[in-house]
Structure formats: structure tokens, C-alpha cells
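[Discussion] Sanity-checking designs against the backbone

I'm trying to build intuition for which residues belong where. Below is a C-alpha cell string of 909 positions. I'd appreciate it if someone posts a full sequence so I can compare it with mine line by line.
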């Protein structure tokens, strides 16, 4: 009751603070003037100069005169991004500026080649634009050029080559970004300050992240480390902030601009393109972008896939039976973005954003021939509809700015699976899901000469529609089944926050403090279930939790461009619909659910593998997991050199992990969702046909510590030569046992990148040889070892299942002398072996073993570059993985592409 009252009081406090925005006079607007020059000191005429706030709303736009001079007016006191573009071949320039009350700020902007490193972040402190050396948080700013160079097939590829980040690629169309060693539901995603992650997000992957097309984005900022003080639940590892393109006002009359782009990559013979159009005048601006992409089957490094079912269950290289390209890795993606900025008055502005995207033809390659050997694992009708409308008021009473937003986020998918390692008569499960989220956000800010205050709040209401059924191909019958998550389950989440950024000692000491109260509630009712055999498919369930999450940090400037940073922050993650309601096949295997197991004597296993024993701990409903993170760094940023070294410790308490489910003996035949338990070992571990590894259960099981070092070094050797390098080391362990924790996705290996870039004088062309590599990862958890994507454990029974089912159906096995399939004399065509001989060759005398006990290290090299064709056209090329190295990261469902050539062409008008 006390917590509920506390929440109500905080909400009332926020309401009365917002009332102040219309009851008290604000500060006067300021102006910005300056001059734009090139590196020789010559004025740059007709450059477009725009002033953007932290929410990326365009405050004013103008062009430089013949002397390179400009003036921007009407800016309320606060922090802004000065964005300068020229069509004379210069790289765009971003600069953080502060506008005072009624004053005129003066700036000199120098345009040249691409910056040594990014300088500006708009998300590190909510509602504040600042340079990277002013924030206590470590931020990866991935600009438009890097987006184009790295995202050859999907958006998640942008995480490669960045300190503190790694790529997670579950399938060709599904992927995410590791942030400080965690991914999936432990990393929250936002689009333009609006929450993109939903309560049905899966634990170790991000199903809908790649539906955000790269051509819709201006930049991506990744904040490393817990930040629930700003972003609420799920920010255990960090947050990924997608910053979409915005239409800019013009300096005078109507103008129309645009871009047409196309691309090709030989690794998957992918091709696609986009057409972008912007139009506007001084009061209204519109942007429309249409994009499409087709990826065909991928050729992995060396022309073979290491985790293919052919290798896993038969011990043969995949290219011997399947060819050099991986089946089930093709997909088609298409969509668009519409964005409107409308200046209602000099002090009021409206922004409307709508994006639509769809992926067709995707499959879980790791569940078909790329891992488990199943015949069907379709990802059908992946759709995204994302909308927000935002009203902003400048000089808003006592506050300098006030914004109010409404958002609508609909994410739809249908999973179609048939298990049994390729059993053609196995039940085909259809699980369509559609999650709809309505959200409301409010924020207000006040800027003083040395102090910046931001307060705000947000609320989201999630509801999932999830009917499910099973088709039996043996008799054509259809049966209603328990969906992955309960149909019509709801999830309400929200919070209020306050943030203060104080320059305690000008040019020496900067202090940051933030505090948030957050609350979430889950509800699922059995009355929403159809009755099967007179009973609902799931029981009633609910959970409510709240938390107060602070963040404190300091930046100390020892000398010009030389700073020290330190920060303490708390992370918080409330179990959501996926955690509390999942019962079915997921990326890690088949998961059971605590509430559905009530009264069945279920306990937690000691590990997530088939060798688990019972801990004696009864399976129970989940509770929130929390974290405390401590970090510090040394930073040196100059025009010719940029150095960052940062260390962190992230302690996660009541860690939500996956363990093997233990049931009393005699569980064979028990119904779990759409599956019946098919076998049980002597320890009580149970198995179902849909997955080769044991049935898993989510639990708060122990505390974990993740620590690491992130390092980056960039040096401009000569005017045209730049050297860059970064390295990331991460170590994760259970605090009691010291063993790798069974966190979904696992822990990435230490990795590093090196590049040497040459920029021709005048920016005509550039060339960049590069290296990318990772060390061997020996620290695999029991969950990793059994995961089809990593350790790929196999047993005598799973080898038998694939031999007699998936391999036989695909024509890899012939009947023996008795001319009957499914008998002891069946022959593997490639080797002439019987089933028993294959089992003994792969396992010896053991009953089961992982295919891999570690992830091999690797090193790849490539060369990329680009050149301009006049002022309007440019071409970017990339010869990737020239040594054709075969490799994959942890929890990847496919091997990385092999030797390939990529080409991208852009025309701007």
C-alpha cells in the first residue's frame, strides 16, 4: 500500500510540475550566429545549417551567405545540436551548443573530411545534447556512413567493429546487439525517444529489431551499461537508441530534395535499394522513404556450416550433401517511413512519424537443416507498424521546453514449427502473435547557465493476441493448443523521472544525477482461453512490481581534452509477458512455465543441460532482477588523437536465467503446451519432440557478476592517414560458483578491430584496409553447450531421430538389405554406415556430448573504400573476409558470410 501511495504521489508531483508550464513566464529565446569554413580557412557558402534539439525536432534552418556566415533564431534556452551539410564533398558536421536566455552565441564551424571520432550524443542524458567528453556514460555513436558500410543485410550488423558491442544473429533475418555481454530482453530499444521494446520480447534474441531499415535512420546511439534511471525496466546491459531521419525546414521558399540508393552483396547475392524524398518550406517539412531488400541463400566462410544437422548428427561437412550455400537463409524485406514536421507557431511544433515494415520468407535455419534437422521452422508475416505524434512547446511557462507524445507500436509474427529432428508426421504448430502497445510520454526541461533540469514520465499498455493450433499431417486434424504466451495477456508499465546536469566548476567538474520511480503489472486470465477437454489452456496469473532506480556520475577535466569519468547506476528488469507466460519453443529450446507446472512437483535443475540434478528448489513465479553497475574511464580527445579506456563491473541480483526442468519420475506423456513429454532420464530431466535439449524453465537463480574493459584508439598520423583500433574484454560468472551463468545468449569472446584509412585530398576517394578478430571462448555455460547454435549437444536418441527421419526424408539414407526404412540395416549413403556405426563414430561409448565445447577464435581481413562522382553521386565498396574464414559468434544460428564483395551507390538531388 505504501508503494502504491508513493507512486500516486509521484504522479501528482509530475502533474503539478507540468501545470507550471502554462502558469509562469519562461525565459527569452536566444540566437546562434557563426561562420562556416573549410580546412584552409576559406568561407563555405550555401551550406545548410540546422538547429536540432535532443528529440531531433528542427528548431530553425538557414544557409550560409557568400562569407560563410549564418544566424539561427527562436531557440529557447537549452542544449542543441548544430548540424551542417554542404554539397561540396565535405563530411556533415555535428556540434553540441548551449543557448542562453536572450543572448547570441557565436561559433566557428570547420568542414573537412570525416571526423576522427563522433563528437555529439543526443541520448546519453535524456533531453540533453552534449559532446561525448561531457557525459559519464559510454556511448557508441554510429553515424550514417557507418550504417551504410556495415548493415549489408540486417540492421544488427552495425554492432560489429564497435567497442563494448557484438553482433547476435539468430537467423538470417533475426538478430540483435550484445551490449556489455548481454542481449535480448536485457537490452532496451528506443526509436526517437519512444520505447520500441515490448513485453513479449524474447529473452535471448530480438525478433523485430531488424525490421528497422537502415535507410530510415540518421544514426544509432548505444548507451553501454544499466540505465534504468532514464529508460526504466530492461536496461540491464544498456540501451540501443535509433535516431530516424528528419525533414528539415528551409531558409525560405519551398524546396525538394531526395536520394536514390541501391546495393548488392555477393555473400548472399542480396540486392535492394531505397528512394527518399523530402519537401518543405520554412513552416512545414515532409520526408518519405521507401526501401526494399532481398537476401538469397548465404555462402558461409569456407563454403560449409559448422553446426549443420549433417555435421551435428552424421559427422559430415555440410557442403558434401547440401552444397556451399546454406538453405533456409533467404528472405525479403520491404517497408517505408513517413515523417512530418509542422511549425504551428514560433513556439509550437508538431512531429508525426509512421513507419511500416515487413519480412517475408524467413526461416529459423538453426532449427531446420542448420541445427536440429527439422523440416519446418517458418518465420511468417513479420510486420511492424510504429507511429508517434509529438507536440513540443518552447518557452513553456517556467520550463524552457515541454513535449507530449502518443505512440502506437504493433509487432506481428507467426511461427510455424514441426519438431522431431525432421519427423514428417509430427504435429505442425502454428503460433501467430500480435502485440499492440499504446504509449504516452511527457517531458519538460529548464536550462540555467550551469545547470540543466529535466523531468518526465511515460506509460505503456501492452496487449498480445496469440491464438494457436496444431495441424496433424497424419490425419489432417486441427487441435487448439496453448500458445507461446497466454492470449489477451496484458502488461502495464510506466514511471516518472528527474535528471539534473550541473557544471559544478566551469571547464573542470560536471556532475550528473538521475532518479526514476517505475512500476509494472502483468495480468493473464484463464477466461480468455478456449476450453479443451472442458478445461482452459492456462490458469490465472498476475504480478506487480516497482522500483526506484538512481544514477550518479561525474566528469573531471584534468587538462584540456583530458578527462576522467566515473558512474554508479542501478538496473531493473520486471519479468514481462515472455518471462511469466512462455510455454513453447524458443531460441534456446523448449520452455515450460511456472504457473502451468503448479502442483506437479517441479523443481529447478542444477544446470541447463541433460546432466542436471534437482536442486530441491521448487519452481516458482519469477520476481524482478536488479543490478548495480560501477564504471570509470580515462579519455583523451584532441583533433589528431582520440583515446578511451573504460572499465566496468555489473552485479546482477536475482538473475533471471534458464535451468533444466526436473519432474518426478513417470512424467512421460505429460502434456506441456502443444508437446507431450517423450522421454525422461534418471535425474528427472524431461524432453519433448520439438527440441533436442532438455525442457527449460526460467528462474531467479543466483547472482552474477559481469566485468570488462573497453578500449578505443584513433590517431591521425598524417593529413590523409588515420589509424584506428578497439578492443573489448568481457568476463561473466556466477558469484557463488564462478561458472558461466546460464544467461540467454551467452557471453561473447574478447574481440578487437584494426583499421588504416587513407582519405584523398579534397575528399575524392578513401580506402580502408581492416582486421576483425576474436579470441577463443572457453567459458560456455551448460545452456550454451546444449544450445543448437553454440555447443550443439547431440545424443544417441537425437542422432537416431535425425538418421531415421530428417536424413531419410531428405534422401541421405537408403534402406538396407531388407528394403525397409527405419530398421537397423539402413545405410548412410555418403559413408555406407549403419545408424549404430554413426552413433559410435560420433559419441564413442558416451550417451551424449556437445559437438563443440568452445567457440574457436578467428581473424578476418578486408578492404573497403568509396569515391565521389561529382557532388551528387558516390559509390562505396567492400571486399569482406578475403581469407574466407569460417566463424560464428556465440548464440549465432548461422556461420558468418565468407569471402564477398559489396557495392552501394547513392544519388542525391
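Best answer:
Here's mine. Compare freely.
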Amino acid at each position: 500500500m505504501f508503494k502504491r501511495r508513493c507512486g500516486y504521489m509521484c504522479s501528482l508531483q509530475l502533474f503539478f510540475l507540468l501545470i507550471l508550464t502554462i502558469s509562469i513566464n519562461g525565459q527569452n529565446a536566444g540566437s546562434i550566429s557563426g561562420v562556416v569554413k573549410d580546412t584552409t580557412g576559406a568561407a563555405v557558402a550555401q551550406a545548410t545549417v540546422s538547429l536540432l534539439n535532443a528529440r531531433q525536432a528542427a528548431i530553425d534552418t538557414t544557409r550560409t551567405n557568400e562569407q560563410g556566415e549564418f544566424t539561427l533564431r527562436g531557440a529557447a534556452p537549452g542544449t542543441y545540436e548544430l548540424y551542417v551539410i554542404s554539397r561540396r564533398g565535405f563530411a556533415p558536421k555535428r556540434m553540441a551548443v548551449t543557448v542562453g536566455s536572450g543572448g547570441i552565441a557565436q561559433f566557428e564551424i570547420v568542414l573537412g573530411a570525416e571526423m576522427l571520432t563522433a563528437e555529439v550524443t543526443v541520448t546519453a542524458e535524456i533531453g540533453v545534447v552534449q559532446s561525448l567528453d561531457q557525459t559519464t556514460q559510454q556511448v557508441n555513436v554510429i553515424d550514417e556512413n557507418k550504417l551504410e558500410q556495415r548493415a549489408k543485410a540486417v540492421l544488427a550488423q552495425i554492432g560489429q567493429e564497435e567497442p563494448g558491442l557484438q553482433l547476435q544473429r539468430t537467423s538470417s533475418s533475426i538478430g540483435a546487439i550484445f551490449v556489455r555481454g548481454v542481449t535480448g530482453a536485457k537490452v532496451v530499444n528506443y526509436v526517437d525517444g519512444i520505447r520500441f521494446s515490448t513485453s513479449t520480447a524474447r529473452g535471448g534474441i530480438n525478433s523485430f529489431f531488424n525490421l528497422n531499415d537502415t535507410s530510415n535512420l540518421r544514426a544509432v546511439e548505444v548507451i553501454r551499461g544499466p540505465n534504468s534511471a532514464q529508460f526504466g525496466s530492461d536496461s540491464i546491459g544498456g540501451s540501443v537508441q535509433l535516431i530516424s531521419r528528419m525533414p528539415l525546414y528551409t531558409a525560405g521558399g519551398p524546396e525538394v530534395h531526395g536520394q536514390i540508393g541501391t546495393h548488392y552483396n555477393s555473400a548472399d547475392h542480396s540486392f535492394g535499394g531505397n528512394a527518399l524524398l523530402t519537401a518543405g518550406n520554412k513552416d512545414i517539412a515532409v520526408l518519405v522513404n521507401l526501401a526494399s531488400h532481398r537476401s538469397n541463400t548465404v555462402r558461409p566462410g569456407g563454403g560449409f556450416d559448422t553446426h549443420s544437422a549433417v555435421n551435428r548428427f552424421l559427422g559430415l561437412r555440410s557442403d558434401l550433401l547440401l552444397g556451399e550455400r546454406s538453405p533456409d537463409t533467404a528472405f525479403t524485406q520491404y517497408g517505408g517511413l513517413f515523417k512530418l514536421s509542422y511549425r504551428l507557431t514560433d513556439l509550437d511544433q508538431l512531429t508525426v512519424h509512421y513507419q511500416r515494415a515487413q519480412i517475408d520468407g524467413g526461416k529459423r535455419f538453426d532449427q531446420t537443416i542448420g541445427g536440429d534437422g527439422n523440416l519446418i521452422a517458418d518465420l511468417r508475416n513479420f510486420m511492424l507498424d510504429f507511429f508517434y505524434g509529438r507536440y513540443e512547446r518552447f518557452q513553456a511557462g517556467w520550463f524552457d521546453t515541454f513535449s507530449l507524445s502518443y505512440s502506437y507500436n504493433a509487432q506481428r509474427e507467426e511461427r510455424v514449427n514441426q519438431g522431431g529432428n525432421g519427423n514428417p508426421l509430427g504435429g505442425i504448430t502454428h503460433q501467430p502473435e500480435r502485440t499492440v502497445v499504446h504509449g504516452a510520454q511527457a517531458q519538460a526541461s529548464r536550462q540555467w547557465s550551469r545547470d540543466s533540469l529535466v523531468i518526465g514520465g511515460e506509460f505503456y499498455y501492452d496487449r498480445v493476441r496469440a491464438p494457436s493450433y496444431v495441424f496433424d499431417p497424419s490425419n489432417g486434424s486441427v487441435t487448439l493448443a496453448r500458445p507461446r504466451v497466454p492470449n489477451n495477456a496484458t502488461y502495464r508499465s510506466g514511471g516518472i523521472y528527474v535528471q539534473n546536469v550541473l557544471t559544478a566548476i566551469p571547464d573542470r567538474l560536471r556532475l550528473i544525477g538521475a532518479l526514476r520511480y517505475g512500476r509494472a503489472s502483468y495480468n493473464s486470465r484463464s477466461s480468455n482461453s478456449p476450453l479443451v477437454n472442458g478445461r482452459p489452456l492456462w490458469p490465472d496469473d498476475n504480478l506487480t512490481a516497482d522500483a526506484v532506480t538512481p544514477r550518479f556520475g561525474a566528469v573531471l577535466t584534468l587538462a584540456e581534452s583530458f578527462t576522467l569519468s566515473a558512474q554508479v547506476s542501478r538496473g531493473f528488469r520486471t519479468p514481462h509477458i515472455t518471462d511469466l507466460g512462455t510455454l513453447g519453443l524458443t531460441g534456446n529450446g523448449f520452455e515450460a512455465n511456472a504457473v502451468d507446472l503448479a502442483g506437479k512437483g517441479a523443481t529447478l535443475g542444477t544446470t541447463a543441460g541433460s546432466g542436471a540434478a534437482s536442486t530441491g528448489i521448487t519452481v516458482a513465479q519469477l520476481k524482478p532482477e536488479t543490478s548495480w553497475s560501477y564504471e570509470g574511464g580515462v579519455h583523451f580527445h584532441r583533433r589528431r588523437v582520440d583515446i578511451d579506456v573504460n572499465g566496468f563491473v555489473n552485479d546482477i541480483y536475482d538473475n533471471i536465467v534458464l535451468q533444466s526442468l526436473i519432474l518426478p519420475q513417470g512424467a512421460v506423456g505429460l502434456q506441456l503446451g502443444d508437446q507431450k513429454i517423450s522421454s525422461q532420464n534418471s535425474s528427472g530431466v524431461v524432453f519433448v519432440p520439438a527440441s533436442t535439449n532438455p525442457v527449460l524453465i526460467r528462474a531467479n537463480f543466483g547472482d552474477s557478476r559481469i566485468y570488462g574493459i573497453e578500449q578505443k584508439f584513433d590517431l591521425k598520423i598524417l593529413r590523409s592517414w588515420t589509424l584506428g583500433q578497439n578492443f573489448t574484454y568481457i568476463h561473466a560468472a556466477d558469484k557463488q560458483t564462478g561458472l558461466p551463468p546460464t544467461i540467454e545468449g551467452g557471453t561473447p569472446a574478447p574481440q578487437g578491430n584494426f583499421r588504416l584509412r587513407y582519405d584523398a585530398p579534397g575528399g575524392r576517394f578513401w580506402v580502408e584496409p581492416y582486421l576483425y578478430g576474436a579470441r577463443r571462448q572457453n567459458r560456455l555455460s551448460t545452456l550454451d553447450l546444449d544450445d543448437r547454435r553454440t555447443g550443439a549437444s547431440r545424443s544417441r536418441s537425437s542422432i537416431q531421430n535425425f538418421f531415421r527421419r530428417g536424413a531419410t526424408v531428405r534422401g541421405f539414407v537408403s534402406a538396407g538389405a531388407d528394403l525397409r526404412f527405419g530398421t537397423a540395416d539402413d545405410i548412410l549413403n555418403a559413408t555406407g554406415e549403419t545408424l549404430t556405426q554413426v552413433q559410435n563414430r560420433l559419441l564413442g561409448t558416451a550417451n551424449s556430448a556437445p559437438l563443440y565445447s568452445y567457440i574457436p577464435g578467428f581473424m578476418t581481413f578486408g578492404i573497403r573504400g568509396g569515391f565521389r562522382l561529382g557532388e551528387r553521386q558516390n559509390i562505396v565498396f567492400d571486399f569482406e573476409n578475403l581469407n574466407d574464414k569460417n566463424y560464428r559468434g556465440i548464440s549465432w544460428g548461422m556461420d558468418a558470410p565468407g569471402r564477398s564483395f559489396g557495392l552501394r551507390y547513392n544519388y542525391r538531388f
